Amino acid sequence: MADKQELPSNWGRWGADDELGTLNLITEEARARGAAEVRTGRAVSLARPIRPAPLVSGPFAPTTGDISPVQQLMQYTGGAPATADMILVTNHHVHSTHLDALGHQIRDGRIYPGRPLEESVTPAGVRHGSTTAFAAGIATRGVLLDLAFDGPLPTGHPITPEDFEAAEARQGIQLESGDALVVRCGWAYTIDPERPMPGIGLDAVRWMHRRGVSLYAGDLGDAHPPFDPAVPGPLHRVALPLLGMPLIDVAELEELAAVCAESHRYAFLLTVAPPRIHGLTGVPVNPLAIF
User: Fold this and answer.
1) pTM above 0.70, yes or no
2) 214 and 30 in contact (C-beta within 8 Å)?
3) Which of 16, 61, 194, 235 gets the most CB atoms within 10 Å of its CB?
4) How far apart are CA 291 and CA 53, in angstroms?
5) Distances, alpha carbon 237 to alpha carbons 41, 45, 69, 154, 163, in Å
């Protein structure tokens, strides 16, 4: 069991009003390092495609099938010079690639960097630790550590620093402060009680803290069920609220892994430009790896 005092934290590191968290580690030098990785201009999306579902209710609403994270209401379909629709988006959906803001997770009644929850997250929106912090977008060097290079990770595998360092050695690359860490486990994000997910262990979060990871993106993140009931979900319960590390959940990494293996290049410019909608706990994104 992990002692609460052992947990890594960035509370106070960048001031009591900070909302960027580990994005502070993306310096001009880190951005330039990412830009230097662009040689061919090839771009790969890290987002899962989403097919909207009709926004319907009542006795004719479908009762079977997966629920889409985006529901669509068509307003104009003909007889006008344009078509138009409205959409309802569910943030933090398991079928949507999305970016978690720092106010998404609570630690002991507070959000990063120690602000009281009641002052930060209200029925009218998020006042501190929201998507407002992503207004300038994110651009830095991304590094793929492909842990599924010879097949999906085993059921219930706890990802450790040794897994990360073995991938660095195998791929001939080293993560640097300000880089975004992209982790491929080779799993689709589907909770199945009969098939426990692998996931990031607490020591792996400590490793990210030591290495200066600015952003995490993965096809998986936390294990289900959790490895340690005392610290369930180290990414969402430690890295996000204590380190202030934004998370890209449910990334689609198969094409990226294929391009990296084909080109023998595991570093790229990673760009994330979410919609400039303030006051949310998260937002769907389409991250791009540019080679």
Assistant:
1) yes
2) yes
3) 235
4) 34
5) 37, 27, 23, 23, 21
**CA neighbours within 13 Å on the CB side: how many for 254?**
7
* Angle, in degrees to the nearest 10, between helices 161-171 and 202-211: 50
pLDDT category of residue 234 using cuts at 50, 70 and 90: very high
Residues 6+ apart with CB under 8 A from 279: 125, 126, 127, 130, 131, 132
Task: Report the alpha-carbon distance of residue 57 to residue 270 in Å, rounded.
Answer: 40
The span from the CA of 190 to the CA of 230, in Å, is: 23
Q: Which residues contact 76 (CB under 8 A, 6 or more apart)?
A: 82, 83, 84, 85
Rounded-to-integer distance, Cα 79 and Cα 174, Å: 58
What is the model's pLDDT at position 68? Answer: 86
Q: Which fold does the domain 11-48+97-290 belong to in CATH?
A: Glucose Oxidase; domain 1 (3.50.30)
- Report d(CA 183, CA 4) in Å as an integer: 26
Domain ranges of the chain: 11-48+97-290, 53-89
